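Still learning. Show one?

>
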Amino acid sequence: MSLTRKLSISCSALLVLFLFGAKFAAQGQKGDKNSICSAANPQSLCNADTICGSSSTPCVINVKRGSYSASATPKIPGAKGNTPFCVKSGTTIMWQTSSKSTGFILDFGQITPFESQTTITGGSKRPVSLVAKNPGCFKFSVSACREAAVSGMCESGNAEMVVIEDGH
């Protein structure tokens, strides 16, 4: 397969991921920060077992494509994919995938925990690090595709992240 064809297929797959991500994000991004998450009081979810990373240690999130969905799983003992997790404001979050030849897109819609980044694009050869700055609860879409995927080879899911002030 020629390089041009591979590039064309990869770009098409990323476009599909972006469109799916925007659709899921638009469905969940209404109202204030607390209304976009499933818990009535999202900060109450944050304790020693659900906080990922610290001001000196990054929070590592593994993005995976499963058979029927995509997931974001924080590196916390016992964490499951797409379950709500917490980070303290000022924590660096490293988005990566342990799956070979996989690309991902995370879409936070119009409300983002990061300074300005609303869509995060990365992959198995390109982890992305961002600092969580804005406290609140954030719902985001997770999409993952195999490299050079054609339509239908991508999966999507939704996850939630709570950013708390460093003093909590």
User: Anything to note?
Assistant: Residues 3-164 form a domain with the Immunoglobulin-like fold (CATH 2.60.40.420). Residues 3-28 form the longest helix (26 residues).
